[in-house]
Design a protein that fits this description.
The protein starts with 8 loop residues before the first strand and ends in a 9-residue tail after the last strand. Helix 2 links the parallel strand 2 and strand 3. It is about 45% helix and about 15% strand. The protein is α/β, with parallel strands linked by helices and about 260 residues long. The protein has a 7-stranded parallel sheet with strand order 3-2-1-4-5-6-7, with helices on both faces. InterPro entries: NAD(P)-bd_dom_sf, SDR, SDR_fam. It comes from Ramlibacter pallidus. Belongs to the short-chain dehydrogenases/reductases (SDR) family. This is SDR family oxidoreductase.
């Protein structure tokens, strides 16, 4: 399927590895020009090199890498100094650390909310009006399946991402945006084989007294697919939500978890 986004410009955050990289790869393979952002300059350069050398990414597709902390005012200013207008924005910031809520002070909560709620809101605010004026815009927020099925050791993430979910539910349904072909959706990953998952498994092992391998095996058994997801298949879903064919999908929480969520709705 031709997704109809060749030549568009996309901003993909947290794109040096994991799910963010998977999204950047899928979009680049569709001919979308990409600005990838992450804090680590070396890892980001490596990611950009891999994107440029991918057999399915054509030489005319522009790949730009900006090393910046997107959760800061300075980091966002650096990105928008390079390019102000984007047709596609994929928000993604590293999830807060797992742990016991009794150990988190105010600073830990503020940091989590700033990264996983307020930063996506700032990126939405900075880009949606330009998208509406041009008649096309796609924003995908990478959140977490924990928004629908909270995980006790991920309380910081549960709280901050739920706040973003509520905000998106309202702003995405404003007629000024929806009628202008601007969509905002959340993509909720379940267990994907990333560094983030490794940290969660290690936290679970520490809490339960089991080994990491034991916790990993137990987690896999809770997934009907009996495996963890891959960054490439996550990216493919993200690319579809960013496509010309997804203009009638907005304000949705798209769960991609191998069937792990047990609910009907």
């Amino acid at each position: 399927m031709n997704l109809g986004i060749a030549g568009k410009w996309a901003l993909v955050c947290g794109a040096s590895k994991g799910l963010g990289y998977g999204c950047a790869l899928a979009l680049a393979r569709e001919g979308t020009h990409i600005v990838i952002v992450a804090r680590g300059a070396e890892a980001l350069k490596s990611a950009a090199d891999r994107l440029r050398s991918d057999a399915q990414v054509t030489p005319v597709t522009q790949i730009e890498a900006i090393a910046a902390d997107i959760t800061t005012v300075e980091g966002r200013a650096k990105v928008f100094a390079f390019r102000k207008d984007f047709d596609i924005v994929v928000t993604n910031a590293g999830g807060p650390p797992p742990g016991d809520f009794r150990d988190w002070d105010r600073d830990a909560w503020i940091k989590a909310v700033d990264a996983n709620m307020l930063t996506p809101i700032e990126l939405i605010k900075a880009t949606v009006d330009g998208m509406a004026a041009r008649g096309f815009g796609r924003i995908v927020n990478i959140t977490s399946s924990a928004v629908k099925a909270p995980i006790d050791i991920l309380g910081l993430s549960n709280g901050a991402r739920s706040g973003l979910t509520g905000f998106v539910a309202g702003v995405s349904r404003t007629s000024k945006l929806a009628s202008a072909n601007v969509t905002i959706n959340n993509l909720l990953p379940g267990a994907f084989d990333t560094d983030r998952l490794k940290a969660t498994l290690e936290g679970g092992a520490k809490k339960s007294g089991k080994t990491v391998d034991e916790v990993r095996d137990l987690r896999i058994k809770t997934i009907p697919s009996l495996r963890f997801g891959t960054a490439e298949e996550f990216g493919a879903t993200c690319a579809f939500l960013c496509s010309a064919h997804a203009g009638y999908i907005t304000g949705q929480n798209v769960l991609i978890d191998g069937g792990a969520y047990p609910g009907t709705y």
